[in-house]
# Entry
Amino acid sequence: MKLRIKEVAKSKGIDLQTLAKKLDITYQALNARMVGNPSIKIIQSIADALECSVFELIASDQYAEHSYNENGEWRGVLKKN
# Structure
């Protein structure tokens, strides 16, 4: 499963070093979790640290896309037309 951790963190003005500190792990440990196949528990902890939904962290596919309002706030995943 492809994750959007970098993109979501950047949109919230949080760099990955800061995110790692919020999670009380090293940057290297965060990077390993981002490239591996993290459990839902790990994805949830990252979502909590970023104050976002788990669903916002999951990359969209050819059938769906992430939707944001005019303020840049995530609205959800919508079916592509």
The two ends are 23 Å apart (CA to CA). The chain has one domain: 5-79. The chain has five helices and two strands. The chain has a mean pLDDT of 91.
